[in-house]
Amino acid sequence: MVVCYNGGEVNKKMKIRFVAMLLIVVLIFSGCASLGELEPGKLAEKEFNLKSYEGKLTFGFEFEMDEKAVSELSSYEVKDLDIYRYLNGLKLSLTSIKVNNAAGGWSVKGFLEKGNLKIPFDFYSSGETAIVQIEGAKHPLVLDKGIANLVKVPRMVYNVPFIGLLSGYFTGETESDLTKLWQEFVKLNISNLPAPKGLTVRTNDNGYVGTQVAFSLDDAELKQLIKTHLRNVALDDPGLRKMAAVLYDYFAEQADDTPYSFKQLLEDKQMSSEGIYGVEKAILSYLALTWADESEARYLDGIRTDISLTADSNQVLRALEMQVTGANEPGMNQGVKSGKFTLSFQRGQIDQNVQPDLIEGKGSVMLYDLDTPERLLDQVDEKSDLFRYLKYELKLTKKSFSVSLDRKEDMASMLEIIKDSGESLEEAFPFGYISDNMAYAPVKMLAAKLGYASNMEETSDGTLTLQVGANKWTFKQDSKTALVNGQPVDMGGSVENIEGTLFVPVRFIVEQLGGNVIADPDTSYYIQVERD
Description:
The protein is of the alpha+beta class. It is built from 17 helices and 24 strands.
């Protein structure tokens, strides 16, 4: 994972907005009535049965930061805003998308832009194998089968590859697991979504005969639309019962991999389906009644969406334009004045047996083997835009780890566990404790995790010396002063010797070794350590 952050509030807002955007896209199918020549039901049916197409897609983000507000935030709150800085000015252009659902393969050519950086890439998936070749990477990367299988999912949103990748990453599901569930979900939503206000329909003749539908939604309209939608679905008894039957079949297929107590719940299909229906009904009724009062709804404050969609006379989606803007809190996070997301998608060559562009996987490496920032950066040419993007835009450091903090009295037992396991202190997961609002951890462990080989010597008077390269630190038990290359330096806390293992203030030794410590003021269970 390239970017890791612990901003729970930021992450929650992002998820709510993402779900809202997906709902907005589905709104184009709202209602059962025809919109000019466009028939929503047939449009969805076509998407489920689409065999192949060519297309292109671009999307990008822009954010305006409130630097004065940012200056008043804590260092940890500022780090929570990193996601906005990462995305600001980011543009992804997929200049060639070739999808063949019938054969189970698709390919993408495109580039990522950020400021003066431009990173071309190629992607190919056969359903069994997925390979990405990025300019600046020393070798092609092979992705796992779960991501490759996403191409098989015949659904509108997943036919936009980047959304498919995101959704599949979060769910971990494949076509065999979700196709029936998804189709029933779409049917349930199409039949219950209310039409947005301000809907305009006109005939399109831009290279093909079709219908263009456009509408805009402000935050109040979107909130009301969501609430109405939830109410409609909650009251759709036939639709919920059909969904319950499909869910029962899905659970029944997985029964062999579940505990016996769960299998018992599936022995009577009629009763089990009735129970699933009851759960659906209860959850949706609760959401419909409480949505407007829930704190989550306020995250849509200041959000405005503009959408234009075009379908041809065969009821196939040909183009989608979307712009989502937001301004001020609580719709935007503190420190962010405004933001904008834009998306443009076009496609043609519908069901013309489009063939994806193959990528030779010679010399490729598995993506899951690059499980640390150091391993990832080692696979990138340091003179490339890709390296500059990872290092200077995403602030990816070669060493990054968290230190789990427990009670001081637990340290002796933890050291004993490590000893009994045969694992060395340098190999163990980083741990330490808090004392007087200061974090302590084994000095040799920290040095090793930061990438330094170290030697430690103990003299008869209890003095310990740590040697890292040409630098030397001398510590004495219960002393707050360390000698750094012979010069006394205040560490801010006393040295502790627990079962022969030297514990020192984490911030002192990490900063001495060229790293940084990032502490969350809201938790005392861990701290983050990073070093270039």
